[in-house]
């Protein structure tokens, strides 16, 4: 309710919307940067060469959105038509490559920036899917895919078990953000409100996983075997 | 020949077609359910959490059809526009998660249901491809992809060697079903006939692999090395 | 400059273009054949059955172009509409399967043919992307994807670390070829010239990697750890 732009804010609605749109673009860039850094770090750790590091930076920051756009029929994907995703991820890749050891000291801040990126990608992805007429339940999944797709491809290429499948409410948080957006759209809520709310829910779950160790339930069979 | 609907059946052709269409929908659901159970079972065995199990259930049941639809240009894919694939796979995922140990006792029935799912997905996939104007040879491959795509993605995500590449006439059976449909379409045969025939051929090959150990030939180099 | 078709050649421009177009088709087939052989060889080495070997042959020769076509919106992909990719890769797969040991003796020639295939796929891929209105920087990446996509999918399916990520200027060479085409298109150069120049650059880099051991730089952290 406090986020509703039409009540109690010192700015006119149109100004608020413009401000939020600009904020969303900036956050989109921050998210792209965070994901690119996370991809680059993995490349360095695996001993890939400069090219491999740049490649992973790019893939992690755009693969989720690309898969979403292909699946909802929005081709060519946004990352193919706009150049800023490419520019940001290349910069992040070069930075990771040459300052890998310093960046490794910033694990915690990167985790936070990554959580913000996840939250934003999840709500932006779900919003784009509903705009393209996708069923709300699938739109929520598309939000999740936008958030986790890059990390999934990264893990498959680097031969890790996709970490979105095992841990830390990562995909669950992204899905929760997408669900809020899908419901908000279905009940004709104000986009600004449900988008911010979805991002907040996703961010909250992810931070609880990082700081409080929240987890999704494990299957009983597994619990029995691993005491 | 016995399957030809226009001769020797007590129903009028239109009634037969309507009956078969309804049967196909039911079998499509059965196939989706079987594939979702197979995905969920793997997730439980690998120790994934509730979310990971649901995720694998969904991916295994829809990935093949999604890849086909993207490749033949039928976007957004059917699984994005209809909700029943999602509903069935989520139900199967929850069931697998909470009753994993009981389901493990039903290995053989699941294998049979999975074979039925494979047969149906293969012929439905090939049929959809020819309807979209794809070359018959590629339509047969699209039938195969519809049948095996989910299992391939499952194995890549769970870091197994894709089992469709090594064993049990799995992909070969799906391909055979697709080939029958592609040929049937090319010679302007009655769709009901060649679809059922394709499914029967696929099912037969798969059952022979399960019960009689039929295999595709191995390369000579491998046979020499592993006596 | 020597490649510029309009000056100093004994043939009229149109004849040169027609000759080059025919040459490009032949080289495209050679590239498809080389990639199919490389996929089939891996299948034999991993002990896959006949079907698995054919499957890898096909995937390696078409996956890169299919991913490019889906991303630039050229669906259905060329390999779905034309049958010759399928025919060539199946032939290569059968040959690999039955003559695997003889082919293993030809490692060096196959590496050369593969380099030619890479060069051609890179420039053809980038060219197709610019024709579809993709931003030049992304078109260069699409050239790279066309060249390396098949190998990436092959390595993921066979559970190797994608070798394009670690070695031998493979992806870098493809990218360089794509960059030449993208720049050539951006400055409105003659297509014949920049296409041939791009292929030459890619081929040169790849041959230097094979014969002189040229490499992309490794990250400092890795260099410190592995002396």
Task: Write a structural description.
Three copies of one chain form a homotrimer. The first copy, chain A, is an all-alpha fold and 227 residues long. Chain A has one domain (20-216). The first copy, chain A, has helices at residues 13-45, 50-72, 78-81, 84-98, 100-104, 107-131, 136-157, 170-186, 191-212, 220-225. Chain A is globular, with a radius of gyration of 18 Å. Chain A binds chain B through residues 70-73, 75, 132, 134-135, 137-138, 141-142, 152, 156, 159, 161-162, 164-167, 169, 171-172, 175, 215-222, 226, and chain B through 43-53, 55-56, 58, 66, 70, 75-77, 79-83, 86, 97-98, 100-101, 104, 156-159.
Strand content of chain A: under 5%
Unreliable segments of 5+ consecutive residues of chain A: 1-10, 222-227
Distance between the termini of chain A: 44 Å
Structural class of chain A: mainly alpha
- The SSE order of chain A reads HHHHHHHHHH
> Biggest interface in this structure?
A-B, 34 and 34 residues
Q: Give Rg of chain A in angstroms.
A: 18 Å
- Bulk shape of chain A: globular
Mean pLDDT of chain A, nearest integer?
Answer: 81
Question: Number of DSSP strands of chain A?
Answer: 0
Q: Largest sheet of chain A, described in full?
A: none
Portion in helices of chain A: over 70%
| Domain count of chain A | 1
Oligomeric nature of the chains: homotrimer
How many distinct helices of chain A? 10
Protein name (chains A, B, C): Glycine transporter domain-containing protein
Keywords (chains A, B, C): Cell membrane, Membrane, Plasmid, Transmembrane, Transmembrane helix
Membrane topology (chains A, B, C): Multi-pass membrane protein
GO cellular component, one term (chains A, B, C): plasma membrane
